[in-house]
Amino acid sequence: MTDRKITVIDGGSAQYWRERKEGFRLIHEAERAAERLADAPMYLHGGYDEDGDVIAIENLGPHDDMEDAIRAIEANETAVSILVAQGRTRIGICEIRAVVDAMAYDCDGIEDPERNPLRGPDTD
User: Which residue has the higher pLDDT, 103 or 75?
Assistant: First the structure.
């Protein structure tokens, strides 16, 4: 017997539409962060050292923004349900683990070898 969470939808309630609006806002924010991440330079110019060489600074801001956006989606049940309904497990290059887990087939506790970091092609 499978336990399923049954979601009751009241499409006429203001709360339902607030939750949907917030979920889509979080998804859109993550899509914008993914675009910025794809276009961002890997390094920034940090000035010059005493020898006149350029000091390169890693541009971690876009990566941090993307991580924050993915965490916000994973913390929002409505955003996760929207992405599950769309069948989207990634935004940009980032996998959304909560969506993957929600879409995963229930194998009654049997471990998926592809998701086990201790297993590899040569550890059969």
Answer: 75
Element (H, E) at 70: helix 61-75
Q: In this structure, which amino acid lies at residue 87?
A: G
Q: Is 14 helix (H, G, I), strand (E, B) or coil?
A: helix
Contact 79, 23 (CB under 8 A): yes
Q: In the block, which residue shows the tokens 């017997």?
A: 1
Q: What is the mean pLDDT of residues 47-66?
A: 91
- Both tokens of 71, joined, read 């965490």
Residue 30: CB partners within 8 Å, gap ≥ 6? 66, 69, 70, 72, 73, 91, 92, 94
What three-state secondary structure class fits 19? Answer: helix
Q: Is 63 exposed, middle or buried (0-12, 13-18, 19+ CB in 10 A)?
A: middle
Going by their DSSP bridges, the two strands 43-48 and 90-91 should be labelled as: unpaired
Pairing of strands 54-58, 43-48: antiparallel
Q: Within 13 Å of residue 121, how many CA atoms lie on the same side as its CB? A: 0
CA-derived radius of gyration, the chain: 20
pTM exceeds 0.85 for this model = no
